[in-house]
Design a protein that fits this description.
Length: about 325
């Protein structure tokens, strides 16, 4: 009987010891694992495939990484998701990030201090501001928009702010046009149906929605002259001069000069420490060939220019990587 109890106690002790060892190992593994959620945009947009490619790169190149992407409403939604700690990384427009940290535009009623954890990883590609019309409308310049029906973007959106600021540089207000607060998808449909004269969007080019219009209509994209590009850029420093090459869209037979905001990859610095930020940035920029297969918009992405047009402070690990790569 005594021998029997000794065997039972020995077995129990062995079981307890094994449980302790397994628990310890589990905790070690949990510490090593990294979970990163990437906020992108709509599934039909540019952010979604680029975010997906970034996620794949991180999973393949960072030990114990579990990166996943999330379809969202875009830049404004992504800023809030970051600030609330729901995601660790996000793609946003640099002007939207600028508004967030300065408490302006759509963030004017928000507590700007809540966005202090918003830090930059890298600038990705320019998103061109495009005033699209049909060639038979006879609209040849921004100045011609007075009195016209213009789809300026959804109310409170980043695109709508871009349209308003560019028009402002020409001395045009919404009192001078018939402003239609339509998303570009709705604006593009309205343009094809003839219920608006111009549809505005901010997006990487070529833009699928513009390609769709150009497949059945002769389009015209309005150019901005140097004087007005200078004016809008001086007042709003997140704008950069951009050229949309001819033949970007079917029937586009001349280069179009406009301005762009920059799509940037940002993080919540409370969730992404210096070491992880360094690993993320290094993984992306040592695998650019893989990333560039995601979308033609990022064909020119390069580590040498990846901090340009950044409208927030750089994340420490990302900053370290770019300084080392110079």
């Amino acid at each position: 009987m005594l021998k029997k109890w000794k065997n039972i106690i020995t077995a129990l002790l062995a079981s307890v010891l094994m449980s302790i060892l397994l628990t310890g190992c589990g905790e070690d593994n949990a510490v090593k694992e990294k979970f990163v959620h990437i906020a992108t945009g709509g599934t039909a947009g540019t952010y979604y495939p680029i975010g997906g490619a970034i996620g794949e790169i991180l999973n393949k190149n960072i030990s114990q990484m579990h990166a996943s992407i999330q379809s969202t409403g875009g830049s404004v939604s992504n800023i809030y998701l970051l600030s609330e700690g729901d995601v660790e990384l996000a793609i946003v427009q640099n002007d939207i990030a600028h508004y967030a940290i300065n408490g302006t535009e759509m963030f004017k009623d928000a507590n700007k201090h809540k966005f202090e954890n918003l830090k930059g990883i890298a600038s990705l590609y320019p998103e061109a501001c495009q005033f699209v019309t049909l060639a038979d409308k006879g609209i040849n310049s921004i100045a011609d928009l007075k009195g016209k029906k213009v789809a300026v973007g959804a109310e409170g959106s980043g695109a709508e702010a871009n349209a308003r600021q560019i028009l402002e540089s020409y001395g045009i207000t919404y009192n001078d046009i018939d402003a239609q607060y339509l998303s570009f998808a709705a604006g593009a449909k309205a343009l094809k149906e003839g219920s608006v004269d111009v549809a505005f969007l901010t997006a990487g080019y070529p833009t699928a929605a513009v390609q769709d219009i150009a497949s059945n209509h002769k389009i015209k994209i309005l150019s901005l002259d140097d004087e007005h590009i200078k004016a809008v850029s001086e007042k709003y420093p997140f704008y950069t001069k951009t050229m949309i090459p001819k033949d970007t869209y079917n029937g586009l037979d001349e280069d179009i000069q406009t301005v762009s905001v920059m799509a940037i990859l940002v993080c919540n610095s409370d969730k992404v420490d210096e070491e992880l930020g360094y690993q993320i940035t290094k993984s992306i920029f040592t695998n650019l060939d893989t990333l560039k297969t995601a979308h033609s918009a990022i064909a020119n992405l390069d580590a040498k220019t990846a901090t340009e047009a950044m409208s927030v402070d750089m994340q420490k690990g990302a900053d370290k990587f770019f300084k080392e790569s110079k």
